[in-house]
Amino acid sequence: MAGVDADGAPVMRWVRPSGAQRRRGDPRRTVAAVTLGLHVLGQTSLDFAVSVPQITAAIAAGALTDLIGARLSGRGWIGPASGMLTGSGVALVLRLVGTEAGDHWATTGWPLFAVVAAGSVASKYVIRHRDHHLLNPSNAGLVVAFLLLGSARAEPLDLWWGPLSPGLVAAYLLIVVGGVSVNRRLGLLPLVASFGATFAAAAGVLAAWGHCFTARWSFDPVCDAHLWWILVTSPEVFVFALFMLTDPRTIPSSPRARVVFGGLVGFGAVLALAPFDTEFGAKVALLATLTVATAARSLIERAVVSGLARPAAGEGRGAVRPRAATVGAVLALALVAAASLVVAGAPARRIADADPLTAAAGPPLAGLPPGVEVAVSPTLAEMKPEVAADAERVAAAVLHLLDVEARAVSAGDGDTAAGVTVGERRQAAVAAALAVAKGKARTWEVVDPEAVTVTVVWPEGRQNLARVGVAVEGRCHDAAPPGADPGGGHDCTRVVAVAADRSGRWFLVAGVDDPLLVADVEPT
């Protein structure tokens, strides 16, 4: 512990824990063990897209900031365990777009992890209420980081950690056993239960009304019962409920107020994520709800204490009426809450019905050109094994579509170009074909294929739907009129996002030039 010497200078003084403290143990040790275990599992079996240098930078920055903050605030030189935990928590949730799973020693973006961790720890010394910090440090720092950086640069840890595996089972056991152990010792299990029950019920209402969001780990919108299951069984939500929500310094002190607090955060989280149709929006909304709730903690506690004091005045002969009125008020409040979820979720309802592919009719499939080799990216093999197993047919179909598109544009045939494309690809191809038809000079790049890789792309950003992507490696040149020499061209790799309609026909969706949006292949 920190103390002062005879001259008033700060010194380190270590005090032997009491017997009760030794028996009870420091909960931070359990939290540290859980987060460290999750980091190890993330690097070895769960494919977390975060590197060891990024994790180390966050922990070191958190520790250093805690040491400096304690010294400047007059607490002397204290051990930085709290700051290290905050840094570890930041590294567990924060992801930098472009960091790939398995790149364990990538140094890209480590200063960002350090800045977010340092800012998180600093918040507990700057934003204070009475004698303690107002906000959960890691929660507040992460929310600010995601709002400032946006989904193009940063993203929270995925809600879905992958199919059932020994590593995932170990992660669940680590989170649940460690979290229950810590919160039982702190008397916070009722708070966790209140959050969990309210969150699950509210998510059920939202899912029942057709809510959907897109996620980078899914080729289809996540909707209905699947959405509810993802939300209530997400390891990230478990970590949030058992370790982030239950910071003793940022929750009400009254046991009943804590139960109300947990319920408000559970309902508020679902209400906040309801308008968003991306996983990024849903995750940031979940985190931001806790930031708002901790800021309003004193108001919540005062309201609960005030509400508990009122029934005493109604005791006696008329006590039955207030009880009936209370039941009626609770039912009315539940109806209003459900209605608010339905209204808030309207923008993200049934986005799956907006699929434009069913309106198009593509050409028949053709075989692969002679000599073209087809490969399958590891990411596609994991995420979409049925497509990976049929990679040659997919590659042949897409090469045929690209050829039809190029010929249609060169001939000024907008209808044919529209028949093999959708979305922004259709708009660009039709515009080019119309320009040719009007006699305006317009070029359209084609690729003479030498090799094809079927992979995964995110044409609308890493937090939106994943699409099947086809990377074509060969010689690029401008489309030439029939009979004309296209020229020598240049070596290139072009990536196009594709999608199939319900009949199994493939269509060109968009070109993808950003390497961060393509798995396992780099466009050139």
Number of domains: 2
pLDDT averaged over residues: 84
Strands in their spatial order, largest beta sheet:
9-10-11-12-13
Poorly predicted parts:
1-23, 316-320, 352-365
Description of the structure:
- By secondary structure, the chain is of the alpha+beta class.
- It has two domains: 26-303 and 326-345, Ammonium transporter fold, CATH 1.10.3430; 373-513, Nuclear Transport Factor 2, Chain: A.
- It has 19 helices and 13 strands.
- Helix 2 (27-44) runs parallel beside helix 4 (81-93) and helix 6 (137-149) crosses helix 12 (279-295).
- The chain is elongated.
Topology (elements, then pairings):
Layout: E1 2-4, E2 10-12, H1 19-24, H2 27-44, H3 52-72, H4 81-93, E3 94-96, H5 110-126, E4 128-129, E5 132-133, H6 137-149, E6 154-156, H7 166-186, H8 189-208, E7 212-213, E8 222-223, H9 224-233, H10 235-244, H11 255-273, H12 279-295, H13 297-309, H14 320-344, E9 373-376, H15 378-383, H16 385-389, H17 391-410, H18 414-419, H19 423-437, E10 445-457, E11 467-478, E12 490-500, E13 506-511
Parallel strand pairs: 9-10
Antiparallel strand pairs: 1-2, 3-6, 4-5, 7-8, 10-11, 11-12, 12-13
Helix pairs in contact: 2-4, 2-7, 3-4, 3-5, 4-5, 4-6, 5-6, 6-12, 7-10, 8-9, 8-11, 11-12, 11-13, 11-14, 17-19
Gist?
The chain is α+β, with helices and mostly antiparallel strands. 52% of the residues lie in helices and 13% in strands.
Task: Give descriptors for this structure.
524 residues; alpha+beta; Ammonium transporter fold; Nuclear Transport Factor 2, Chain: A; five-stranded mixed sheet; two-stranded antiparallel ribbon; 13 strands
